[in-house]
Amino acid sequence: MKNFSKLLLASILGLLARAVVHRYRPHIVMVTGSVGKTSTKDAVAAVLSARFFVRKSEKSFNSEFGVPFTILGVDNPWNNPFAWFSLVSHAIGLIFLPNHYPKMLVLEVGADKPGDLARILRIATPDAVVVTQLPEVPVHVEAYASPEAVREEEFSPAYALRAAAPLIISADDPYALENALRTPARIITYGTGEGAMIRVSNTTFAEEGGRVAGMHADVRVEDLHGEIVVRGSVGTTQILPPTAALATAFAFGIPLADALDALESYEPPAGRGRILSGKQGALIIDDTYNASPVAVEKALGTLKTFPRATRRIAVLGDMLELGRYSVQEHERIGTLARESADIVFAVGIRTRAFATVEGKAEVQLFDNAQQAARALGDLLQEGDVVLVKGSQSMRMERIVSALLADATDVSQLVRQERKWKKKV
User: Fold this and answer.
1) Can you tell me the distance from the alpha carbon of 32 to that of 100, in angstroms, rounded to the nearest whole number?
2) What is the mean pLDDT of residues 393-410?
3) What DSSP state is assigned to residue 263?
4) pTM for the whole thing?
5) pLDDT digits over 39-62, tens only?
6) Relative to the CA of 118, which of 71, 81, 213, 409 has its CA 20 to 30 Å away?
7) What domains can you pick out in the chain, each with its CATH number?
8) Where are the beta strands (DSSP E) in 97-170?
């Protein structure tokens, strides 16, 4: 009965959202891929707002529920029947009454299981698609027959593009490059390779007042040059969303200087490599939104190269939904962690594999985030750099919360809504 009610609600939402799209005919930019979608969506929306009236997906609203919420411009009603009634009334008003509706929608779209994106594409058809990354072992692979099946579904919005519509892909992603050849779209590439149309280079940590404050990179678009500065978050992956946004700006004829100015308002979302002050003078890299093998690998690279760290501490939770790839990927990440850090805190059943692989770092095992937080609080020292990362269900943000030097910084963490805090 519960599944039937969910399907019914999804169907009603889809019909209402589709009617609103038909009524106003906004230009739709879809952001898809395995990692970095929310950051990329935010950066893309920032540059497009320099020229268009834009609405973007809030947070990570990327499902068959989240996408209609964005199209309708409403919050998630959750289990409140009055809020659902208000949502339907609002949608009917949009459909039958004149409204000042956005000219462009930037929609993050995601798939947890086969068919998810097909259902979303029945609601809205993209006019442009941005693909973030299609890694070797994608997240949610547990629900699919193979990694190839995940990549195919995540790339599927591109197949819905009309001829010559913009398809923005990473020049560093062989899967995206290969799949793009099967579309009639206008391909625009971004990345670090020589062949990238929007190319970044010289990516480094940005410092202010002798402290790491974010990331910096040079960017080239045709014969024009500029600088990308991302404040408040660290990691080479933090440069990619603004670069994808500049590629999108290029696709829509927005000059590089205007796009870079627009990116001044961009800030990486919570839980994506955010730099926070910790107790005892430690620094925390809060990367707790989620975890997939490729994302953890990149985060460990950031920890390993972080300047002037007294000790590097990796606090890593289980990576979920990897299915038959779980053991091999946890062993591989365990090896990387023990080579990248001085101390490794492994949280969860799957990360116990970290203690079985070789490496220089000491490994401490914990059943849950609360245990790890208590132990780490007693361990911190001045100059420590602590990376915290894990899948959503591991609730690794609780560790960051316990380690904050200023308790009010908890507002900058992921999953601080009442519904999340009620969960065990």
Assistant:
1) 27
2) 97
3) G
4) 0.95
5) 999 999 999 999 999 999 987 788
6) 81
7) 2-190 (3.40.1190.10), 274-422 (3.90.190.20)
8) 104-108, 128-131, 166-170
